[in-house]
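Treating backbone geometry as a discrete language has practical consequences that deserve illustration. The amino acid sequence and the backbone structure tokens for this protein are reproduced below.
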Amino acid sequence: MPNPKPLFVATHRYSVLPLRRLLMLSTTTVAVFGGLVACSPTRLLTAISPAAAASVSVDLAYGADVRQKLDIYQPNRPLGAPSPVVIFVYGGSWQNGSKAGYGFIGKSLAQAGYTTVVIDYRLAPKHLYPAFVQDTADAIAWTYRNISQYGGNPEQLFVMGHSAGAFNAITAVNDARFWQTTGVPDRAVLGVIGLAGPYAYDFSTDPTRIVFPEGARPEQIMPDRHPRPNAPAHYLLTAERDRVVYAFNAQRMQAALQSVGVPVQVAQVPKVGHASMIVAMAMPTEFLGNTRQMVLDYLQQRLATVPRIPE
């Protein structure tokens, strides 16, 4: 498929500056939280998300490395049946990012009734592929074994990622080399959600080649080359105005999943770009696009397939 532009250039500069501008759109936000503007834009977005939405447990270790930690956001509501669980993996070209900056995802999904796990993972260039994918698989395994202690249902897991995080999530679940290390039964994962993920690009011609081992080839690594027949259902979202990760990534991943019989839906979020797509997941900036509602609709759709236990 001819494409004169790089296939995937999700640099830190690209992701942060548009996000800062988006947050500046709200004069109320700037007036009340102006002192926070100098900090990370994603942390600002987390700070202005309603604190009452969730109770948070931070820095829980799923491995020995300082980056192998996760935060859990529990819905603030009367105790009842365990809640479904969403495991979220952020992007940043596999070189940037912190779970502390993505608390807005945890708060947003917890407000909707989901126990939400936001993970950190080891970053390049210190840690090359497959470190960040194996970390994602290990975090999924930890969640399955431990989430019941935090009000979550380990038999109702969803895995979601944005950009490079979507690559991590979908590779960890689909590539048997990683999934077989988790010990998580296939039935426990009700769905995988990829937001603007690079699943099928030639990293050898892209600046992100530095996060992969020297001499590695796309056919060895890209998740569209390693679909797993027993993988759970997938929902692949693209952004209408994305100029960082092109839609063919989702199209090729869809074809790969369909070739082994895995249910998959592909949809486009109107009016958003690569950065604003994930910003629209936050409650204060939901007006920017339909990402949050589309994700919540899919979660409910998948939960509706779970057989009800007679009371």
Notes: The CA atoms of residues 88 and 127 lie 20 Å apart. Residues 1-7, 9-17, 23-39 have pLDDT under 50 and may be disordered.
